Amino acid sequence: MKYCYLILCLFTIISCNNNKKRLPYYDTADFTPKWEMSNEKTFHQIRPFKLINQENQPFTERDIEGKICVADFFFTTCPGICLKMTNSMSEIQKEFFNDDEILLLSHSVTPEKDSVPVLKQYAKEKKVDFKRWKLLTGNKNEIYDLGRKYYFVEEDEGVKKGNDVFLHTENFILIDKQRHIRGIYNGLDPNSMQNLISDIKILKAE
C-alpha cells in the first residue's frame, strides 16, 4: 500500500508541476498509472450493479451518473479499522457536504448481517447524511465481485480470491464521472485523506 501510495503521489505532483493538474487512470490491480485511455469505450470502469441503500431503495450505476465517487468496503460490527474508515469518510462528507457532484459509497462486506435496518441505525449513529453518503448492502457475490474485480480494492495484483475469502481493506477508491478509477488512498492515514480531498477538487476542475 505504501509503495502504491508513494507512486500515486509522485505522479500527481509531476502532473501538477506541469500545470496540467490531471490525475492518472487505473485499469489493473497493481495500480500502474496511465495518463491516456487507449480506448474510452473499452477502458476499465466500474460495471453496472444492483444494490440497496440504507433507506431500502434500489441503488445502481445509474445513481452515480455524473458523480465523482469515493468508495470503500466495511462492515458495521467491525471492531478494528472500520471505525477509523468511517471517521475518514465523515471528514470527506463534511468537506463536500453541499457539493452535489460528490457521492460517498460504503459497501458492506457482511451483507447477511448488515440489513437495511442495521445500516439505517449505523447511519444515524455516525451522522451519515443520506444525500451525500450511501451505505450499501445486497448480494454478497455482487459486492465481492465489484470490490475485487472492478474497484481492485485489495491491491492483489492478480491474485484471485473466492467469495469465501473475507474482503477486508482500509483502501478508499476515487471514481470519476465515467466510473473510471482515478486514485487509491489509505483510509487510516490523515495525510492520504488530505490527498484524496485535493484530488477530488482536481477531478472537479477537469
Structural description of this entry:
The chain has five helices and seven strands. The protein has a single domain, classed as Glutaredoxin (3-Layer(aba) Sandwich), CATH 3.40.30.10. 35% of the residues are buried. The protein has a seven-stranded mixed sheet with strand order 2-1-5-4-3-6-7, sandwiched between helices. A hairpin with a 4-residue loop joins β1 and β2. The longest helix has 16 residues. The chain is globular, with a radius of gyration of 16 Å. With 206 residues, it is an alpha/beta fold.
Largest sheet: 7 strands, mixed
Question: Over all CA atoms, what is the radius of gyration?
Answer: 16 Å
Q: Strand pairing plus helix content: what structural class? A: alpha/beta
Which word captures the global form?
Answer: globular
Residue windows where pLDDT falls under 50 for at least 5 positions: 13-19
Question: For the largest beta sheet, what order do the strands appear in spatially?
Answer: 2-1-5-4-3-6-7
CA-CA gap between termini: 27 Å
- CATH class label: Alpha Beta
Number of β-strand runs:
7
CATH-assigned fold name: Glutaredoxin
* Percent helix: 25-40%
Order of SSEs: HEEEHEHEHEEH
Strand-residue proportion: 15-25%
Mean pLDDT across every amino acid position: 89
CATH-derived architecture:
3-Layer(aba) Sandwich
> How many structural domains are formed by the residues?
1
CATH superfamily descriptor: Glutaredoxin
Please work out how many helical segments DSSP would assign: 5
